[in-house]
Amino acid sequence: MVFNNHLALMSGEFQVDIYETITNVYVAGNDPVLLGETVTFAVFATSPGTNSTFLLQLSEEDQNPVMLTPPSKGTNSIGIVESTFQGINFPFKLSDVYVTLYSFVYPSAGTYRVQVNATNAISTAYAETMVTVHQIPCFRPRVDIQHDGTSTIANPTAYTRDQDIALAATIQLNCTDANHRTFKWKAFTMTDLQSIPYSSTEAAISYILNGTEIIIPKHTLGYGRYILEFSVTEVHKVNGKNVTISNSDYTWFEII
């Protein structure tokens, strides 16, 4: 490239690096598992970014996070996720995201907070989940939001602001000895870059709740696209410790 003016003539070269940002990071484990069994973690991203580093912290006490292979796309990975994470719902289509897998055996029973931190030159992202290692056989509850079957991220169900939004969920309990069980509905806003539910995008909603049914009154939410999450959380007492098991399902809607 050459620059000149009436005072000087200069020539030179420069390089422009173009980076993609990291977006929509999500982590899940195939827990609960029995003590001694392997926990498989799947870390997802709709964009893993350019030259990114993904670190997996296996518990809050873990001082040596694992550096993961960056998420990638491939039919083999999708097949592993589908077979390993049966009964677990994701807030996206597996074919739309990149994924990387990691396996670990915890040395003792309990509930562990697992965190993922992803960074590159222009962006950072964070996700976390809880995993449970049991000493007795126990499985996640099965959770399904009942809708017309057409709601997707790309084509959310449309409502006007003058409509109530009424939905219900079904639950299949796979552990009968829970000391405590809670049901929770949450709504999250969606943008072009943010399509996975995070606490920072949670929308304040008022609703009428009757067990597994919800009614969001008209005019509660503003115009835009939303993710609605229904979660079931169970608390079990194992060797004097509270052990948590949960599962969620998702649906998508738009206020027009």
How is this structure best described in words?
The protein is mainly beta and 256 residues long. It folds into two domains: 18-135, Immunoglobulins (Immunoglobulin-like, Sandwich); 137-256, Immunoglobulin-like, CATH 2.60.40.10. It is 4% helix and 49% strand. The chain is built from one helix and 21 strands. The chain has one helix spanning 75-84, and strands at residues 2-4, 9-11, 22-23, 26-29, 33-34, 39-45, 47-48, 53-57, 66-68, 98-104, 110-119, 124-134, 142-146, 157-159, 165-172, 180-190, 202-203, 208-210, 213-216, 224-238, 241-255. Strands 5-12-11-8-9 form a five-stranded mixed beta sheet, with no helix packed on it. A five-stranded mixed beta sheet has the order 14-21-20-16-17, with no helix packed on it. A hairpin with an 8-residue loop joins strand 8 (53-57) and strand 9 (66-68). The protein is globular, with a radius of gyration of 22 Å. The mean pLDDT is 88.
